[in-house]
Amino acid sequence: MNPGRITLVVFLSLLVYSNVQGQNVTNYAQIPNPFLFLLREPAVHQDLQLTPKQRGELILLNEKYDGVLLASRNSPQKGQRRVAEVFAETLDAMKSLLTAEQQTRLRQIGYRLKGMPFVLLPDAAMEMELSDEQKQQIQQVVDDTAQKLDDLNTGTFPGPDAYAKIQADSQRLQREQQKNISALLEDQQKQTLVALIGKPFDLASLGRVGFRAPEIAPGGTWINSEALNLTKLRGKVVALHFFAFG
Fold first, then answer.
1. In this predicted model, what pLDDT tens digit does every residue of 214-229 receive, in sequence order?
2. For the chain, what are the domain ranges?
3. pLDDT of residue 10
4. Residue range 150-172, pLDDT digits in tens
5. Residue scoring higher pLDDT (105 or 221)
């Protein structure tokens, strides 16, 4: 068997059976660009073998934008523009913070999160030298699979047995998608694909993203307590009880 084909089979199995779940991010595959989340993942920090200096600088950079990203949920239209700005600023900072090898590895992990359809991303498609016909054929496979997966979604929890069957059917459809896309690639393109995704990465280790809580607004009247801030509360469990009148 062709060595490139053997490696591709390994790649396919990793994509199908990796179950991305976690505390904060539960479906990376649905995030258009997971870059800002990946930079907050401890597993990614470990894989990139960040130095203590790099780790410290990255934490400070992330904390700089934590409040912005959290606030973006309150105003989708304005928030999207601000997130785009944060993305550009963070991407620029990574050029000096990470080595060239670390930047490449971060991109490889991002590709793995997308599954086989990542080949349609502009950079990947260009490196693989996909023809326009290949792009159209691959897009058709992706669209057909997306429709079949959507048909499996009942919108409500169907019960444990039915849910297990849905999960099995979902994995089967993804395997079929990957095989169908693979069949559209030339051998050299498959070898390029293997190089683009790099060494294996445990996708199940993701989902440990943390964001720094926004600072407590100063002022106002405190009851049964002195005025507090995040510095005084660091390392403690805090329960917030909101009262609304009207």
1. 667 777 787 777 888 7
2. 3-215+222-233
3. 46
4. 888 877 777 888 888 888 898 89
5. 105
- DSSP string of the chain, one letter each residue: --HHHHHHHHHHHHHHH-----SS-S-GGG-S--HHHHTT-HHHHHHHT--HHHHHHHHHHHHHHHHHHHHGGGSHHHHHHHHHHHHHHHHHHHHHHS-HHHHHHHHHHHHHHH-GGGGGSHHHHHHHT--HHHHHHHHHHHHHHHHHHHHH--SS---HHHHHHHHHHHHHHHHHHHHHHHHTS-HHHHHHHHHHH-S---GGG------PPPPPPP-S--SSS----HHHHTTS----------
Look up residue 175 and give its two tokens: 């395997």
Q: Tokens 């069957």 correspond to what residue?
A: 165
In this structure, are residues 88 and 34 in contact, taking their beta carbons and an 8 Å threshold?
no
**Whether the Cβ atoms of residue 204 and residue 19 lie closer than 8 Å to each other:** yes
Q: How far apart are CA 174 and CA 171, in angstroms?
A: 5
Contact in structure between 38 and 105 (CB atoms under 8 Å): no
Dist. CA 58–CA 128, nearest whole Å: 31
The tokens of 46 are what? 């470990």
* The two structure tokens encoding residue 51: 């130095």
Using the structure block, give the residue that is written with the tokens 């979902």. Answer: 170
Distance from chain centroid for Cα 232: 33
Over the chain, what is the mean pLDDT? 82
Which amino acid is located at 7 in the chain?
T
- Please spell the DSSP secondary structure of 171-212, one letter per residue: HHHHHHHHHHHHHTS-HHHHHHHHHHH-S---GGG------P
